[in-house]
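Model: Ready when you are.
Researcher: Fold this.
Model:
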Amino acid sequence: MRLKDKVAIVTGAAAGIGRAIAELFAGEGARVALCDIRAELGEEVATRIRSAGGEASFVRCDVSQADEVEALVRTTVSRYGRLDILVNNAARWAGDGVLLEVSEAIWDDTLDACLRSVYLCSKYAIPPMAAGGWGSIVNIASVNALFGVHLAAYTAAKGGVIALTRLMAVQYGGQGIRANVICPGTIETETTRTAFEERPKLRERLQQALPLKRLGRPDDVAYCALYLASPESDFVTGAIFVIDGGLTAGMKIEG
């Protein structure tokens, strides 16, 4: 098992990419602490992992709140005795859009959920990782951080995630802690399916724009996170992994 004896925290683990990562990590031998603000869904995921023979627990946590994040890390270390892996996946972009139309409240809320959360979770996770002499932080950003498309606050926040990840790689590599970032493209999750229902032609347009001619699946991101979380990537830090079906590589023009 690729994560045998490792302890991981996965934020935003109640659905989508976070759920896929938590389930994959548990299947690879990690003891996983799931966190989310959606308690019922989070508990369901933890129960499903345990039913499959894995070890998991759920802690309700708003990752934009320092006291709740501190409690999450403290509870995890108390329960499992250590902390090796942190996956900062939690995000929110409801109400976001074109820069001049984004309210200050939405801007602040998005940056809290997408960037402040990475700062807080890393701040409290790094000390127990350093105490163990090894740690892997995997931050989930977005291709929005790599080129301008839409969602002003989300794009700014995810760009900040990349910068913060690389800084952590430099500052804490000497303590055995690695930090890397994944930039997913369009992934089929509960959230994107809702968007496709509201705009029926959007899914086909996005799919046809990709060189691989399909949208991503949560497992596509989860397997990259597994590599970065495992000792297999011990010489990898400060790196950006793009999981986007070729979107940022370009588009083939027919004719």
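Researcher: Now this one.
Model:
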Amino acid sequence: MRALVSYDYATLRVVPRVDREEFINAGVIVFSMECAFLGARIAVDPARLIALSPGIDVEVVMRHLDAIARICAGAPDGGPIARMPARERFYWLVSPRSTVIQVSQVHSGLTAAPEKTLADLFGRLVA
């Protein structure tokens, strides 16, 4: 059995109207320094977004969420943030902001497999 390693995670939220503080969980970001792992899983039901905020531009929201996934992956088309080390990318992504896409507080845990933990958290918090 693989040894347990620490990880941090945050939930991505879409907050169509910041003044109302209503949100839909849209994804999870997991970071484990010991495993050199930074990953995100993202999924949004456009119908739920429109039900929460009829005037929302779903395409723009999806583009921004996709950018988060590219930054996590360190993708070449992820811009300058995607070229930063994984630790710096994670902390940049989870920094508080008052925009349509926000993140929860960072939570910590122990895991033997960060990839599996990402899938489990996504299933519990988003799917």
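Researcher: Key takeaway?
Model: The mean pLDDT is 94.
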